Amino acid sequence: MTAGKVLVAYATRYGSTKDIAEVIADTIRKRGIETDCMDINTINPENMSVYDAFFVGSPLHLGKWLPEAKEFMQFRRDVLNKKPVFVFTCGITLKDKTEHILKKAEFALYEFSQYVKMDEKEFFAGKLTIADLNETDSQIVRIAGVGEGDYTDINTVNKWADGIADKYLKAQ
Asked: Is residue 89 within 8 Å of residue 123, measured between CB atoms?
C-alpha cells in the first residue's frame, strides 16, 4: 500500500511508551512517510480519516492496557478497521519474554481484539524508575518485586518498524 500519512498513537503513564512511539515514528519518517506521533488523549477523532495506517501502543499496567488505550481501540474501530493497524505493548515485565509473560501480554490484547483487527503486534520491554511512580504504583511494584531499570532495546523497535514499512508502507 502507498502510505501518505501514518499516525503513531500511544497511551503512557511514565513516558516509556511515548519514547518507544517516538522511535517508531522516527523510523517511519526516515522512509519518507509523513508521520504524526500523538498521545491518545490528544487525538481528534474527526481527523483520523486522513491517516493511511495506524500504530497504537500502550504499557501494561496490572496486566492490562491502559483504559484510554482500550477505549481508543473500541470507540475508533470504524476508522481503524479500514486501515492497517500495528499494535505495540510495553512493560518492564517484558524484559523477560518467557512464554508465561508473553501469554499474559497477549491476553491484554484480547480485550479489544474483538473490535479491531491487528495486522501486526509486538511486545517491547520498557523502563521503570521507581522514584517517578505515584504511591499506589510504587507499592504495587514493591509487592511484585519488580526492579527498576531501562530495558528498552531501540534496535528491536527500529527493526520492527522497518519490517512493517517494508511489508506494508511505501512512501508516495
From this structure: yes
Prediction pTM value: 0.89
Instruction: Answer yes or no: are the C-beta atoms of 87 and 119 closer than 8 Å.
Output: no
Tens digit of each residue's pLDDT (9 = 90 or more) over 19-67: 999 999 999 999 999 999 999 999 999 999 999 999 999 998 878 899 9
C-alpha grid cell, residue 35: 508521520
Percent of the chain with pLDDT over 70: 90
Under DSSP, the state recorded for 135 is: H
For 124-133, give one letter per residue: b (16+ CB within 10 A) or e: bbbbbeeeeb
Strand 120-125 relative to strand 149-150, pairing: unpaired
Q: How are beta strands 64-65 and 85-91 bridged, if at all?
A: unpaired
Check whether domain 2-171 has CATH 3.30.200.20, yes or no = no
Query: What are the extents of the domains in the chain?
Result: 2-171
Beta-strand pair 2-3/85-91: unpaired
Name which of 78, 86, 56, 79 is nearest 68 in CA terms.
56
